[in-house]
Design goal:
about 850 residues, alpha+beta, Actin, Chain A, domain 4, Substrate Binding Domain Of DNAk, Chain A, domain 1, Substrate Binding Domain Of Dnak, Chain:A, Domain 2, 29 strands, ATP-dependent protein folding chaperone, HSP70_C_sf, ATP-binding, nucleotide-binding, Hsp_70_fam
């Protein structure tokens, strides 16, 4: 299976849809791991309500309560019939495991669907007559719990954040039925599956997050790939996945100096066997059961569901002890008929019992290597994943197939529980622009052949995320059957071929059917089109096309004239070519699921209705219990405070005797009512009872709070009044000074007007006078009752704070007001300047003339005096 998803490209393509928090889910047969992808939240696993990093993959009912996780696991001993473990191997399947795993075994319905009968002693809210659950519906129950945990973590201030997008891991060998059933469960909870990657792929991504790999160029074959085998042994399956890693570097553009490095992760093959930790648990349980029967002669214990549930729990505990020790004590209290069971079990006993099937733990390694056409010599390391890899007998099985030559290749360098979900979360983060991620190209491949009418269509090893078309004869309506691994999965039927042929004019019509093997491993129809099977030669091909390709850039310039001259001919040819375009007629088609019956739309609506009814009932019950607990706690607190001998005297000191009597009577009455109606009262009734008592307590609480806060409020108010008066006095002085300066101002030398208007200063002055009268009146009365704590105050903190803040904001607004600027000086106009200059010149000319007159007279006299000369 192959995804060709370059994560750096997906940052651009998918980012608009991936902006909110994303939940990664690694759903296992026994345990589930969750991780949240959100800015500001560390990439780590999500804890369950018991602060566990691993969540039990189970849903149970305790009487009428639906429970999950560790609580659900613990409920199996008391309510085995409403306990639903190990749902994963039943998803999208019609085969029930032969192992005795289910206290309430499932059965096959008439339509071949696996169903669980829900016990009548555990009634469901909003019952619609349906008393069965499908594996898909039970998985949807658990997904609802996972989502609640993640939304609580993603939220802030106690308010959950809605999550609607998920990235999930599935076994790489899962078929279309199983993947579709998982997606149906997600859709039942309103979740969008952004991606569905293999569990081995998740581990590989986690391994690649912080490591460098050798360079390799697929085009030239230069360099080398690094091959690793991921060995995953879980609760019910053991899987081996062969993965190739390498790195490519390229420059984004010729001017770049720093290359971009991309790590490629290519999942080549997988092999798997249906054996895991549960097989060990059952072997240990059988050993303990036989030992108990031998010691007590109570053979009927094998039919007691509660006794078997207790032995299951003890067997799992013993298995973990034997993983590190040679022997373990066994201790089960009141196992059967009040008989306590105590014994011992050795690791050797377990290994002897498992000897016949131990080789199955190593078989997936050989299968995966054969499919990848590799040998152990090509493998760099064998990476252990899964809790069952801690068991010595499993490690021994792996070492036996590796041999002494390759035994040192076993690596325990990833978290055996969390690597898959952290890898999935890392992949989900790569789908968002909100994170700066290492560039990764992930390739997954189909692990089985997809065939069409018996012929291979998508061969084993084909990459996911690709399309392929097939040509079929166009006669009557066509029915095509697709299979995966030899099992029918899909029937595609065209609906209107004869009608389309009636209007089809091109020769040799055929039907082109295009299918897509999407990134989630789901085969679906893209389209069906009626086309002609005759292909015309491209006019740009042949000799003319070849000659045209011989011209270089300069030659192209030489032929531009010829091409321009042929424009008109070309246009005519283009018009003809338009008419010769291949004729296409879209056909209607319909898909029919084959094999395992999928969940229909009507069934989804019914399941969603049931799930919604359960969720609503749980929410109402939670709210009612919260209201009851609050009321009960409130009653106990008041009873203590009303006790005359209590050390906390506030309630007594600030209340009158009549008020205390009224409260005591109401508290006693409410206690009596609660003892009779605690289990049946509604949330509304419980809240009403509490509000009735709070109404009596409220005046007392006000007096106490006012006594605590009034002194500080008065002090703050007085400071605000002082600041207001100081501001008003300074502002009035500045205003007076500005008005005086304005009297001596002229247009040529103007001055700035006052900063504050008379109206503004008047408003401050009026506010100060009003507040002064108000506070003096109230304080005069308050002083008289200050020593009597049972009196309601005359002046309240709230009123003081409101008036102080209003005065403060008024003064600050004026202080922050920008001071007005002085107007620009008035300059003399050009005409007046010319007139002044002319007047000055005339005055100067007159003065000069007067100065010259005596001189001229003197000269005239001199000429007369010497006239005779």
């Amino acid at each position: 299976m192959r995804i060709y998803h370059l994560l750096s490209l997906l940052l651009f393509l998918l980012a608009p849809a991936v902006q909110a928090a994303v939940l990664a889910i690694d759903y296992g047969a026994e345990f589930t791991k969750l991780s949240l992808v959100k800015p500001g939240v560390a990439l780590d696993v999500v804890l369950d309500k018991d602060s566990k990093r691993k969540i039990q993959s189970v849903v149970s009912w305790k009487r009428d309560d639906r429970v999950f996780g560790q609580e659900a696991k613990a409920a199996a001993g008391r309510f085995p019939d409403a306990h639903y473990p190990y749902i994963k191997p039943l998803i999208g399947s019609t085969t029930i495991p032969s192992l005795p795993l289910y206290p309430n075994p499932p059965r096959l319905a008439e339509d071949g669907t696996i169903v669980f009968q829900h016990p009548q002693q555990h009634p469901l809210p909003g019952a619609d007559g349906t008393d069965t659950w499908t594996p898909t519906a039970l998985l949807a129950h658990q997904i609802a719990y996972f989502r609640t945990l993640a939304e609580t973590l993603a939220g802030s201030d106690g308010k959950p954040e809605t999550i609607s997008q998920v990235v999930v891991t599935v076994p790489g060998w899962w078929n279309q039925y199983q993947r579709k059933a998982y997606r149906d469960a997600l859709e039942l909870q309103g979740l969008t599956c952004l991606s569905m990657i293999g569990e081995g792929t998740g581990v590989a991504l986690n391994y690649a997050m912080t490591r460098q790999f050798p360079d390799y160029d697929p085009k030239t074959g230069e360099g080398q790939k690094e091959y690793h085998l991921i060995y995953d042994s879980g609760a019910m399956q053991t899987t081996a996945t062969v993965v190739a890693f390498w790195q490519e570097s390229y420059l984004p553009n010729p001017k770049s100096k720093t290359p971009i490095n991309t790590t490629f992760v290519d999942v080549l093959s997988t092999g798997h066997e249906d054996i895991g930790g549960v097989n060990l648990d059952l072997i240990i349980r059988d050993l303990l059961l036989k030992d108990f029967v031998v010691k007590t002669k109570k053979s009927d214990v094998a039919q007691d569901k509660r006794a078997l549930a207790k032995l299951d729990k003890e067997a799992n505990r013993v298995k973990h002890i034997l993983s590190a020790n040679q022997e373990s004590n066994v201790n089960v209290e009141s196992l059967y008929e009040d008989i306590d069971y105590r014994s011992k079990l050795s690791r050797q006993q377990l290994e002897d019992s498992l000897e016949a099937s131990a080789s199955l733990f190593s078989k997936p390694i050989a299968s995966a290597l054969t499919s990848a056409e590799l040998s152990l010599d090509n493998i760099t390391s064998v990476i252990f994943f899964g809790g069952n890899t801690r068991v010595p007998i499993v490690q021994s099985a792996v070492k036996s197939i590796l041999g002494e030559q390759h035994a040192d290749k076993i690596a325990q360098n990833v978290n055996t529980d969390e690597a898959a979900v952290l890898g999935a979360a890392y992949y989900g983060a790569g789908l968002s622009r909100q994170f700066k991620m290492k560039s990764l190209d992930v390739t997954e491949r189909s692990q089985e052949d997809f065939t069409i009418n018996g012929e291979v269509f998508f061969a084993r090893g084909s990459g996911l995320g690709q399309k392929k078309s097939v040509t079929l004869p166009a006669k009557d309506d066509i029915k095509v059957e697709f299979a995966q691994g030899g099992k029918p999965i899909l029937l595609v039927e065209t609906l209107n071929v004869p009608a389309a042929l009636a209007n089809f004019t091109s020769p040799e019509p055929v039907v082109s059917l295009t299918m897509r093997l999407d990134a989630r491993g789901h085969l679906a129809t893209v389209n069906a089109v009626l086309v002609s099977n005759v292909t015309e030669e491209d006019s740009s091909g042949g000799v003319a096309g070849a000659l045209k390709g011989l011209f270089g850039k300069k030659d192209k310039e030489a032929v531009e004239e010829t091409e321009a001259a042929d424009d008109e001919k070309t246009a005519k040819k283009d018009e003809k070519n338009k008419k010769k375009q291949p004729e296409k007629v879209a056909l209607r088609f319909k898909e029919h699921a084959l094999g395992v019956k999928p969940t229909s739309g009507e069934e989804k609506r019914k399941i969603m209705s049931r799930l919604t009814a359960i969720s609503s009932a749980e929410a109402a019950k939670t709210a009612r219990e919260e209201a009851r607990n609050i009321l009960e706690g409130y009653l106990y607190k008041l009873s203590s405070l009303l006790d005359p001998h209590t050390d906390r005297r506030a309630l007594i000191d600030f209340s009158t005797e009549d008020e205390r009597d009224a409260m005591s009577k109401l508290v006693a009455t409410t206690f009596d009512w609660l003892s009779d109606h605690a289990e049946t009262a509604s949330e509304k009734e419980l809240r009403a009872k509490r509000l009735a008592i709070e109404k009596l307590e409220a005046p007392i609480v006000i007096r106490f709070n006012e006594m605590q806060t009034r002194g500080k409020a008065i002090e703050d108010f007085q400071q605000a009044m002082f600041a207001g008066r100081s501001f008003l006095l300074e502002a009035q002085k500045n205003t007076t000074a500005a008005l005086e300066a304005a009297k001596d101002a002229s247009p040529e030398k103007p001055v700035a007007p006052p900063k504050y208007t008379e109206e503004e200063l008047k408003s401050v002055e009026d506010l100060l006078k009003e507040y002064e009268v108000w506070v003096d009146t109230r304080m005069e009365k308050q002083v008289k009752i200050e020593q009597d704590k049972t009196k309601d105050p005359e002046i309240y903190t709230k009123d003081l704070n409101e008036r102080g803040k209003k005065l403060q904001s008024t003064v600050l607004r004026l202080l922050n007001k920008k001071a007005p600027k002085a107007p620009k000086p008035v300059k003399p106009s050009p005409s007046s300047t010319a007139e002044e200059s002319q007047a000055t010149e005339e005055i100067s000319s007159t003065a000069s003339a007067d100065d010259q007159k005596p001189t001229q007279t003197a000269d005239a006299d001199d000429s007369k005096r010497h006239d005779e000369l």
